[in-house]
Specification:
Blueprint: H1 11-23, H2 31-44, E1 48-52, H3 55-65, E2 73-77, H4 86-90, E3 94-98, H5 109-115, E4 120-126, H6 135-145, E5 148-152, E6 160-161, E7 164-165, E8 172-176, E9 189-193, H7 196-206, H8 230-240, H9 243-261, E10 267-269, E11 276-277, E12 283-287, H10 293-302, E13 308-309, H11 327-335, E14 336-339, H12 347-363
Parallel strand pairs: 2-3, 2-4, 4-5, 5-8
Antiparallel strand pairs: 1-9, 6-7, 6-11, 8-9, 10-12, 12-14, 13-14
Helix pairs in contact: 1-8, 2-8, 3-7, 9-12
């Protein structure tokens, strides 16, 4: 089976983890936590990086740090992973869904403008599949309307807008290190900000609201246990050593897909928005006929090629159940297929994927 994703684990990972085990630094205290956070800030150029247990917790902490309360409105695209939306509900705030852009799969800025109201407190802007929208314009809108911007960078580590790394435009940025992300520690996340006051509050919130690191068992706010273990941080720190190599390989994989599909008119391969340098977390194709999406995925599965559909529309899910139509999001959700995109994908395997898709396209009328 050619897997959709397969994490790249270096020898340094094993050495670092063994060092944690041999020294008994296996919990949330230990030298690798700080090392990972500092290396992450150095790479992204975001001043403060606070490690957490996963990307969903990262978004929850971001909302808490911005003092989001019951009935506050948070704008978020319906075409995104569910983790971009659920933390809004944790705080009994209201997600206000917007459509996406058909060409770049990102949040639709025109629809975003229309949805801003007096109750809007923040925008969550996910950078999907490694691509980005005009985040500078979104930042400008947020400043004019005096609302917060949270960048969900779970899929955009290594992506840049006008030479600035994703996460540098919002009040807070969140990252994920799940097993299929650009770098992985199995489970984990990072909350990043250039605001020192926000950074201190996020650290306090993730560590049970401890009032002072010098006083044991004293707490003055309700906090959470969202800490990252030293073992996970050790894996992350070693992954940061090879991140540029990983991204370079992933860009090469995209170019091979691009060249392989260039003469096929019936599929669209997601590329890069203007002024964006994508990390190409996952390579995604869009079929012109939604009836053939499941058929193609089934065909590829029989050929031992693993794929995934693109994200479902969150507003249609039973816990949200919003009776509205988002034309572009519906299309992206129904017609998209994610292709194998891991950094050590072999050329022969990628050629097989392209060949099998071409075969399917030629044998099925659109």
């Amino acid at each position: 089976m050619i897997q959709l994703y397969n994490p790249l684990i270096s020898k340094q990972v094993i050495q670092n983890v063994n060092k944690c085990l041999s020294t008994n630094w296996i919990s949330s205290k230990g030298p690798y936590v700080e090392k990972f956070e500092k290396s992450f800030s150095k790479f992204t150029k975001i001043k403060y990086s606070i490690s957490v247990c996963n990307g969903t917790a990262a978004i929850h902490l971001a909302l808490l740090a911005l003092d989001i309360k019951r009935n506050d409105e948070i704008i978020v695209p319906t075409f995104t992973y569910i983790a971009s939306v659920n933390p809004i509900k944790y705080l009994n705030a209201k997600p206000v869904f917007v459509d996406s852009d058909r060409e770049n799969f990102q949040i639709n800025i025109n629809d975003l403008r229309k949805k801003i109201s007096r109750k809007t407190k923040a925008i969550i802007c996910p950078h999907l599949y490694g691509n980005m929208t005009d985040v500078h314009l979104i930042k400008k809108i947020c400043k004019q309307k005096r609302i917060f911007l949270i960048e969900d960078c779970a899929e955009s580590l290594g992506s840049y807008y006008k030479k600035n790394h994703s996460g540098n435009f919002g009040d807070i940025a969140t990252f994920s290190f799940y097993g299929n992300k650009t770098i992985t520690i199995g489970e984990g996340g990072m909350v990043c900000t250039n605001n020192k006051k926000i950074a201190k509050l996020i650290f306090k919130l993730k560590t049970q609201g401890v009032s002072s690191p010098k006083r044991f068992y004293q707490h003055d706010i309700v906090g959470y246990n969202y800490r990252m273990t030293n073992i996970c941080a050790a894996i992350g720190f070693s992954q940061m050593k090879i991140i540029r190599s990983i991204i370079k390989k992933k860009r090469k994989i995209f170019l091979i897909y691009k060249n392989g599909f260039k003469k096929i008119n019936n599929i669209f391969l997601l590329g890069e928005s203007p002024n964006v340098k994508s990390s190409f977390w996952l390579n995604v194709i869009l079929l012109k006929n939604n009836k053939l999406r499941e058929k193609l995925m089934s065909f590829l599965k029989k050929e031992n090629i693993e794929t995934r559909p693109t994200f479902g529309e969150v507003h249609k899910m039973p816990m949200y159940d919003v009776n509205k139509n988002y034309k572009n999001s519906k299309l992206l959700s129904e017609r998209g297929i994610c292709l194998p995109s891991y950094p050590h994908l072999k050329l022969k395997d990628q050629k097989k994927i392209i060949s099998k898709i071409k075969k399917f396209i030629n044998e099925n009328k659109f």
